[in-house]
Amino acid sequence: MKLERRSDTGEPLSPAPEENPSSGPDGKKPVIVYILVLFTVAFLLMIWSLFSHQRSNTEAIGRLQGSVSAMQEVQELQDRVIQLQEELAEVKEQLEQEQEAAETAAAAARDEAGALLTERDSLEAQVAALTALYRLQQLYAARDLESCEAEISALGSGSLLDSLDAVSRKWDWDVTPPSERYLELKEAVSALEDRAP
Question: Which H or E run includes 73?
């Protein structure tokens, strides 16, 4: 049962008309449509934001991949530089070793050449001493006492006598060694001079 409202005067008021939600601008239906539109706009904005972020993320990933590729290239170049430096150090070390070996070989060759020159000089002196001894023998055989004296004087004054001693020590002689032969000839020449008038 519906209650009737009465006015202050006591007369019954006519019942208030029932509000129809679909009628009038203040109804519930336009509010729902407004909320749906807001949700749709918010959803579209969220989708647009998602795609925008995905695109910026893709660009950032592309830039990062480019940076990673550049870093890998730099790392490869650094590795190559290190490898080349190691190879250069090995080549320098080999070069130094070869230079040391060449210097050692050159020093050995100089020493050997010096030794050969010394030996050559010694042999030439020995040949000269033996030649002088041979001349002395020939002069003694010819009984040329003056020439014998000159030859003995030449043999005794220089290093020829030392060369004769060296020849005598160097070889095993089946005959009288040259230094002893020189002394024999010297004594024989002195004896001849003593007997000469």
Answer: helix 28-141
- In this structure, what is the dihedral angle of CA atoms 133, 134, 137, 141, given to the nearest 10 degrees? -160
pLDDT digits (tens, 9 = 90+) for 153-171: 877 766 777 777 777 676 6
Compute the distance between CA of residue 86 and CA of residue 93 in angstroms, rounded to an integer: 10
pTM, two decimal places: 0.48
Long-range contacts of 172-181 (CB under 8 A, 24+ apart): 178/129, 178/130, 178/133, 181/133, 181/137
- Nearest CA-CA partner of 168 in 117, 124, 126: 126
What lies within 8 Å, CB to CB, of 12 at 6+ separation is 4, 5, 6
Q: Could you give the CA distance from residue 94 to residue 185 in angstroms, rounded to a whole number?
A: 64
Token representation of residue 196? 């000469």
Q: How many CB atoms lie within 10 A of CB 131?
A: 11
